[in-house]
Amino acid sequence: MTDRVRIGVLGAARVVKQALTDPAKSAPEITVAAIAARDPARARERAARLGIPKVHESYEALLADPDLDAVYVPLPNALHAEWSIRAMEAGKHVLCEKPIASNEDEARRIAGVAAKTGRVICEAMHPLYHGLFDRVAEIMADGTIGEIRHVSARVCFPVPNSKDIRWQYPLGGGALMDLGVYAVAVLRALAGADPAEVTHARAKTRVPGVDRSTDARLRFPGGATGRIKTVMWGWPVFSFTGRVEGTKGKLTVRNPIAPQAFNRIVLETGGKKTSEQAAKLPGTYTCELNAFAAAILRGEPLRTGPEHFVPVMGVIDEIYRRAGLPVRGASLSARSE
C-alpha cells in the first residue's frame, strides 16, 4: 500500500466520469489507475476520454492486477453483489454504486465477506458525506425542534426511456431501487435511527414487477412515524426533500441528494422561519472519495459501510413485500408472502 489508493473501474458506465474520475482530481489520496469492460474497445475509448492509464481485457484481469488497491463497481444493480464479493476475495477494497445489492440477503453476504477478508466495503451513497448532513445532525442534536414525531423523504426524478436499465427487473430496476435507497438513507440520517417496521406500502408499475412509484409508511422506535415517496414516472416530476416534524418545530432539507448543486435548511420554530445553506464545496463525490481513502489508509470509519447498507436493503425488501411486488433478485413470478 502506498500513500494513495489506486482504483480500478469495473465497467464503462456513464457515471464513472461524474462519480469517480472528475472528483478524484480533487481527492489527493485517490488515483484512478485502470479500467475494464465487457467490450475491451469500449474500455479503451473510455480510458482515452477520461485519462485512465491502463486498460484490462477483462474484469478478471483487472481484479488480478497487483498494482491496484481498490475497485469501483458502477455495474447494473443486479451485478453489484457478485462483483463486490469477487473483488474483496481478490484482495481489493470496494466502492460500489448504490444500491450495493439486490436485497438484504445479498447485502448480508457482502458484509460477511468484508469481515472475513478484512477489506473495506463502501456503498457509494455520496450525499451522506456532504457537510449538509453534518449541519443537520448538529441541529437535531441541540434539541431545537424537540422530540421527533414524524420524518419524511421524497425523491422524485423522471426516467422516461423505457429501455433504460432502471426499468428492467432482471437488472434490479425500479423507482425504489434507484431512488428509494436515497430516500431511506435520508430518512435514517434525519431520524438518527432505523425504522422499526414498514406499516404500509403501495406501488404503481409501468412494466411487470417494476415500480414506477412507491409510497411507504414506517414506524421508528419510540413511536415516531415516517414516510418515503419515490417517483420515476409520474407526479411530482422533480422533488428532493427531507423533513422532520418535532414537538417544538419543523426542519426541512431541500435537495439532500445533490447538495453540491444547491441546498437549503429551513427551520420553523416559535412561529419564526429561518433558513441557511451548507457550503456546496467540496462536492459530495469528492467527500466520499476522501472518506473511502481515509478508511483504507488510516482505518477511519465510513458512514455507508455494512451498518448502513444492510438495514437500508432490509427496508427496501419490506416495502416491496408490503406493496405486493417481488424483492429484487427473486423470480419475477414469485410473490412474497
Description:
InterPro entries: Gfo/Idh/MocA-like_OxRdtase_N (IPR000683), Gfo/Idh/MocA_domain (IPR050984), GFO_IDH_MocA-like_dom (IPR055170), NAD(P)-bd_dom_sf (IPR036291). It comes from Amycolatopsis sp. FU40. Residues 134-251 form the GFO/IDH/MocA-like oxidoreductase domain. Belongs to the Gfo/Idh/MocA family. Pfam families: GFO_IDH_MocA, GFO_IDH_MocA_C3. There is one protein chain. The protein folds into 2 domains: 5-127 and 286-304, NAD(P)-binding Rossmann-like Domain (Rossmann fold, 3-Layer(aba) Sandwich), CATH 3.40.50.720; 130-284 and 313-322, 2-Layer Sandwich (Dihydrodipicolinate Reductase, domain 2). The N and C termini lie far apart (48 Å). It has helices spanning 15-24, 40-50, 59-63, 80-89, 104-117, 131-141, 175-191, 284-298, 306-322, and strands spanning 5-10, 30-36, 54-56, 70-73, 93-97, 121-124, 148-156, 197-207, 210-219, 225-231, 239-246, 249-254, 264-269, 272-276. The relative contact order is 0.16. It has 337 residues and is α/β, with parallel strands linked by helices. It is globular, with a radius of gyration of 20 Å. The protein contains 9 helices and 14 strands.
